[in-house]
């Protein structure tokens, strides 16, 4: 391939880049233009790409001329396809974000939150006494469990609540970890059952 042929192919590539149409239309336009250019080169004995530029025009101008000659329906159809694709992508991303938000909310509900209360802490230079060794567990802002510990680390008292924050079970333990008393409650808060366990001697 001689120098002029390489320059012609570069020229055609520039035109192709500037065309706004389907791949099939681009192929047809470029093939027709290629044939016209090579016919011109053969009949006019062209040896310089500048002759091609002066006879046919700049690549941007050729592409612009082609777009202005395309039927408006075809251009409209190409833009409609882009709009549909863009709308589809936006819908998928929006759906993904909504689903992700739902799972994050579910995760937050499942995880809940703890409030730990321990020995005195210093706040703004003052010692503030907090109740010793307590854990309160909340889920969705509703108390689910309340636990108090003995100094040896064993559970002293434990309360479990239903989804509405109503006390269900209250258990009191001995320092050795055995159950001392257990009370279960009805939904209205009244005592359902109370058991006091006899301690081994």
Write structural notes for this entry.
With 201 residues, the protein is of the alpha+beta class. It has 3 domains: 1-70; 72-111; 113-196. It is built from 5 helices and 9 strands; from the N terminus they run αααααβββββββββ. It has helices spanning 3-18, 23-44, 49-56, 59-69, 72-111, and strands at residues 113-117, 121-123, 126-128, 134-139, 142-149, 155-161, 167-173, 179-185, 191-196. The strands form 2 sheets. The chain has a 7-stranded antiparallel sheet with strand order 1-4-5-6-7-8-9. The chain has a two-stranded antiparallel sheet with strand order 2-3. Helix 1 runs antiparallel to helix 2 and helix 1 (3-18) crosses helix 4 (59-69). It is rod-shaped and about 115 Å long. Residues 120-131 have low confidence and may be disordered.
Descriptive keywords:
201 residues, alpha+beta, seven-stranded antiparallel β-sheet, rod-shaped
Would you summarize the structure shown here?
The chain has 201 residues and is α+β, with helices and mostly antiparallel strands. The protein is built from five helices and nine strands. The chain starts with a helix and ends in a 5-residue tail after the last strand.
The H-and-E topology, N to C, reads as: HHHHHEEEEEEEEE
The helix count comes to 5
Assembly level:
single chain
- Largest sheet entry: 7 strands, antiparallel
Distance between the termini: 108 Å
Helix content: 40-55%
Strand order of the largest sheet: 1-4-5-6-7-8-9
Based on DSSP secondary structure assignment, what is the total number of beta strands? 9
Q: Low-confidence segments, ≥5 residues, pLDDT <50? A: 120-131
Tell me the strand percentage band: 25-35%
Structural class: alpha+beta
**Spatial extent as radius of gyration:** 41 Å
The averaged pLDDT comes out at: 80
Number of domains: 3
CA-based shape: rod-shaped
């Amino acid at each position: 391939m001689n120098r002029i042929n390489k320059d012609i192919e570069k020229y055609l590539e520039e035109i192709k880049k500037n065309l706004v149409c389907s791949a099939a239309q681009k192929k047809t336009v470029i093939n027709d233009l290629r044939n016209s250019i090579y016919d011109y080169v053969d009949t006019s004995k062209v040896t310089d790409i500048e002759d091609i530029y002066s006879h046919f025009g700049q690549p941007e101008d050729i592409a612009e001329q082609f777009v202005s000659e395309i039927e408006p329906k075809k251009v409209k159809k190409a833009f409609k396809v882009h709009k549909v694709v863009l709308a589809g992508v936006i819908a998928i991303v929006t759906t993904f974000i909504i689903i992700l938000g739902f799972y994050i909310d579910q995760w937050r509900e499942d995880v809940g939150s703890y409030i730990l209360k321990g020995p005195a802490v210093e706040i703004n230079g003052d010692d503030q006494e907090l109740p010793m060794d307590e854990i309160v567990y909340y889920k969705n802002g509703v108390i689910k469990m309340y636990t108090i510990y003995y100094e040896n680390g064993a559970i002293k008292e434990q309360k479990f609540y239903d989804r509405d924050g109503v006390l269900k079970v209250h258990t009191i333990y001995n320092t050795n970890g055995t159950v001392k008393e257990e009370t279960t409650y009805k939904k209205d808060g009244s005592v359902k059952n109370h058991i006091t366990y006899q301690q081994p001697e």
